[in-house]
């Protein structure tokens, strides 16, 4: 009976902490240690394995009628299997992440819209649609461009774009 209580507590604590971490996000970041150099978080893997150990032990006792040794082996097997499955799922999710960061230099040649007028010596804002997203950037130009006018990104200096009107940007030597 005492072993069954341990399984119930293990199952409840494991599921509870796993649910809290999934619902509230990175609440357990201070515990978050990656598994080796894989970048896989150990917290969800550990608590999934912990709750599966409790569930496996309960299955061993209640469903299969196993004794102490059999229920512990069943719990360990189910726990290790669930931990491995959780690690594989996180690895698959990790592979889905993009590793290419957004670089402003990719914006050169893109068309956008001036949202805050700009000109020589005056920084304004442009909105550019790139890679499925519309982003706003500080911008300058060699000519005065009013809000609402179309622009083409000619260059990027630091975090500021240098833009021109489309007809000026297409002119050779500009």
Largest sheet: 5 strands, mixed, barrel
In percent terms, what proportion of residues is strand?
15-25%
Would you count the extended β strands for me? 5
Overall radius of gyration: 28 Å
Question: Would you identify the regions where 5 or more consecutive residues have pLDDT less than 50?
Answer: none
Task: Please give the alpha-carbon distance between the first and last residues.
Answer: 84 Å
Number of helices: 4
Which strands sit side by side, in order, in the main sheet? Answer: 1-2-3-5-4
Q: In total, how many domains does the architecture comprise? A: 2
Q: How do the helices and strands follow one another from N- to C-terminus? A: HHHEEEEEH
- What integer is the average pLDDT? 86
Shape designation: rod-shaped
As a percent range, the share of helical residues equals 40-55%
What structural category characterises the helix and strand content? alpha+beta
Brief account:
It contains four helices and five strands, in the order αααβββββα.
Please characterize this protein's 3D structure:
By secondary structure, the protein is α+β, with helices and mostly antiparallel strands. The protein has two domains: 2-96, no CATH class; 104-169, Nucleic acid-binding proteins (OB fold (Dihydrolipoamide Acetyltransferase, E2P), Beta Barrel), CATH 2.40.50.140. It is 45% helix and 20% strand. The chain contains four helices and five strands. It has helices spanning 2-24, 42-63, 68-96, 166-169; strands at residues 111-116, 124-130, 133-140, 150-157, 160-164. The protein has a five-stranded mixed β-barrel. Strand 1 and strand 2 form a beta hairpin. Helix 2 runs antiparallel to helix 3 (68-96). It is rod-shaped and about 85 Å long. The model has no long low-confidence stretch (mean pLDDT 86).
């Amino acid at each position: 009976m005492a072993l069954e209580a341990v399984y119930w507590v293990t199952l409840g604590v494991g599921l509870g902490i796993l649910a809290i971490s999934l619902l509230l996000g990175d609440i357990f970041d201070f515990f978050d240690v990656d598994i080796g150099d894989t970048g896989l978080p150990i917290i969800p893997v550990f608590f999934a394995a912990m709750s599966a150990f409790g569930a496996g032990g309960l299955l061993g006792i209640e469903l299969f009628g196993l004794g102490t040794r059999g229920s512990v082996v069943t719990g360990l097997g189910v726990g290790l299997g669930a931990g491995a499955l959780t690690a594989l799922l996180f690895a698959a999710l990790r592979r889905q992440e993009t590793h290419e960061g957004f670089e402003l230099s990719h914006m050169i040649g893109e068309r956008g819209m001036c949202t805050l007028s700009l000109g020589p010596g005056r920084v304004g804002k442009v909105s550019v649609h790139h890679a499925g997203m519309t982003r706003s950037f500080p911008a300058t130009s060699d000519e005065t461009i009013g809000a609402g006018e179309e622009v083409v990104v000619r260059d990027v200096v630091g975090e500021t774009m240098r833009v021109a009107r489309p007809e000026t940007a297409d002119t050779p030597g500009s």
